[in-house]
Task: structure prediction
Amino acid sequence: MNVLVVGGGGREHAIVAAIARSRNDPSIYVVMSKKNPGIAALCEDFLLEKETDVEKVVEFALSKNVELVVVGPEAPLAVGLADALEDAGISVASPKQKVAQLEFDKAWARNFMRNNNIDGCPVFDVFTDKDAMDAFIDKLGNVAIKPSGLTGGKGVKVMGDQLPDVEAAKVYAASLLDQGSVVVEENLVGEEFTLQAFVDGTNLAFMPTVQDHKRAFENDLGPNTGGMGSYNAPGEILPFLTAEDVESSKQIMVDTVKALYKETGQKYKGTLYGQFMITKDGPRVIEFNARFGDPEAMNVLPLLETDYVDVLAAMASGTLDKLDVKFSKKATVCKYAVPAGYPDKPTKDREVVVGDIDGAIIFYSSVYEKDGKVYTTGSRSVAVVGVADSIENAEKIAQDALENLSGDLHYRSDIGKAALIQRRIDHMNQIRGQ
Result:
């Protein structure tokens, strides 16, 4: 089978690596904007092109007799790449534009949740008028401000973190109005986690829960990033969650998929990412993404025991219920090495040298290869993943590998460490009143 992957980052390296393990012996083709050395080593051929250039992606897919496509990043979904590929007669295991709005239009997504009575929706409203928005901010008192469009995980600002007070929230919200509508919602208090699922339009196969770490520096300090690393526990439940938390979150995602079809007339096919906040009142939806998280894909895909090509084909054909999707019950810890100064003033075009990473898995992200050497671009560079029977051992594997990378790099060493995880547990115990 000929399979096309669109995208050239760490998430897509994890996707390509999972496809390469398939017993179906697929021929892998990739469209990416820069040559990712990890991906290039695993694929039959690749096209260096903008991933949002729909015409060229479709042309490449047809020229390679591609039978199945998976789209990694969100931007190509927002421009309707899945629609164009299907129109060309190619099966796609990623959502079409109408249902991918769930990610790329936050105002649409919130209104969709409210109109369909989906649990977990925070108090919110959508604004294009500054005076009305200011009044709503005053009314809520503690808010999160979100631009409606795609921001790469960096456009959302919340009071108590990036926004010191109500006045700062008003100033930031007003600055976004030029770009379109602005979503203002209650600032949720709790612990964040990610729940992802394979979806075939009707059926969902859930993955282990993962916790990402957005802040740039140790102890959750500094500006937000695309994600500095993530971990999961053996089994499917993170240490600070309960089985009920996870079941409630799963139901929210099941209801969302059902309501998407009712609202749009189109079935959601592909990976669905739910970012949740577990609060004293149960799970609340921070946002949905219409694809894998990055870095969360790097936690779950190495644990996938079911053939990933079979999973992709089942999503595309609506037959996921015929497949027993299994993950090994191990812990993983993923840690990103990023350019020094990231995210505000990252260094660029610096060489990255990978030393002895022993038992870790390495995924190249936003790097490029030139004359056999790997260089940084200014965004996240290389992720290392430890897989083990415990979070503690997985963290050691990842940290040892991280310390054997050379270059002008920065990383967080606390991700997956017992002290940080215990803080999460204590925080949730406090919130639950235990």
